[in-house]
Design goal:
It is a single chain. The chain is an alpha+beta fold. The protein has one domain: Roll (Hypothetical upf0131 protein ytfp), CATH 3.10.490.10. The protein contains 3 helices and 7 strands. β2 and β3 form a beta hairpin.
Amino acid sequence: MSDAHVFIYGNDMRSMPGRRVLEPFEAQRFHAEANGVLYASSASFPVAVLDESAESTVIGELVQLRPGTLQVVLSTLASSHGYFKEGDPRNLFELKRIKVRFFGGEEIDDVYAFVAPNSFSTKGVECVPSGDWRLYRETLADKLYQSRMTGSATNQPAAQTNVG
């Protein structure tokens, strides 16, 4: 394997809206997970609080990068994830090196990931119990469809019915 990897758990995964962002730079993608908790900060993007001692997991993908592309990938992801530089108070995410697991159990260290900054507050955000952003989005879309079919969404504010 290449020595450069990123862990993605949101809209950059396969079958998600931002999946093409990494395609020019990837050698391979693997299903993977990391210990932590996933939150829905809004209907449009997730935030992961990763902690190796957590009993829950965040489901995502380990992207093996093509040689020589790490800095371009990190810069591309930084601009799309609201990351300015280490320690900047405007950061929506922090860039960290983490440990991830393949679904078969094999672990890999030193994987880059954009995760919740230390200042992240869980107040007012929804926990995603499955740890799986793709499943959460599909469930949200199903709920929206069902509410539209039954007419129960007519008095809902737009922000609650928008699935992005």
